[in-house]
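FYI - complex with (2S)-2-hydroxybutanedioic acid, inputs then prediction.
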Amino acid sequence: MTTLQKARSDVLFEGLTPQPPDVVLSLIRAFAEDPRAGKIDLGVGVYKDEAGATPVFAAMKAAEARLLETQATKSYLGPEGDFGFLEAIAPVAFGHTLAQTGMFGVQTPGGTGALRLAAELANAGRPGATLWLGTPSWPIHSQIFAEAGLNVRTFPQYDAAAQRLLFDEMLGALETAQAGDVVLLHGCCHNPSGADPDADQWRQIARSLAERCLVPLIDLAYQGLGEGLEPDALGLRAVLDQCESAMVAYSCDKNFGLYRERTGALFVRAGRHQEAARTNVLKFARCGWSMPPDHGAAAARIILEDADLAAQWRAELETCRQRLASVRQILAKADPRLAPIGAQKGMFSILPLNPDQVGRMRAAFGVYMLGNGRINLAGLTPSNIEAFVRAFGACAEE
Ligand code: LMR
């Protein structure tokens, strides 16, 4: 009797190996499953108020109510999404109209969608193009760029033990880059370190990029949460003033509190290849999601087009910013090892802890953070900050 090997269709999937859970998002579940009452969530980058809540901005609630009342159709808009949204974001981010920037814009599902489109565009323009990434960075950056086929090269940008920006290393890396290479830069509120270049350093970065014909890809995901809407855009604007080609991935997740609505945009300036870049981006968008989700962008547009709602939104955002800044000052004064946090910006800082100490913070004290010691400062409130400082003191090196 012959044994015939039965054919199986799952051979299609035989090249797959299970992937590790996402290092940021897996913390949401791990924290939820921890039964301890005094646990502290400093994981995923979501703003929280003093009560530990992430409420919808009041300006957003009002805009959403208006949207519900006035929206006459949910018919398709097209792969660019909402042009009014793109035009309304431009003055906030760039200080100019979109036409004045020389960029085209495409609405995307969050900042991540914009980064992915930028990566696809770079790889289509120059297959296997090099993308320079300072480390540490948002852990998903390198995955997005590598998945799209780019050659990711890293350079040290922040010394977590010494808690300082490695600016000379950053400039040194740019010196070795070649014309047409892409350089990923965090526009403000560096994730994970909170260590941003100052105005003069941004000017040097801009000059270096322009001299070497490098293409900045600026990830602006926290505008308004560092020093304010305008100051947080100055680095980006310095770079755009100097560089011929540039890409900007904009996220409204944090500064409009839109998170799960997935609201963002990609803006591109591509020199002689502007029309080819624009139409390729539209093709990638069409092949990825066809059209971006509308709701968040429509509501953000309503806010920005209405002077009263825009003022209310700015005030609410400023309240968030001030709370983050005050948590920074409390930490900086609480323990000399946390002092550098006082001069850093935005939602994140990296604690001077090794992975074992990070593990101990979780196991012994229920404090959740990324494995590299990144904390979301918004998770610290008047009711838990003292417990956090005590836990840090118990786990950190003397
Ligand atoms: C973070 O870094 O925690 C946020 O940007 C959320 C995310 O998508 O990872």
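The pocket of (2S)-2-hydroxybutanedioic acid is lined by residues 24, 44-45, 138, 191 (CB under 6 Å). The radius of gyration is 22 Å.
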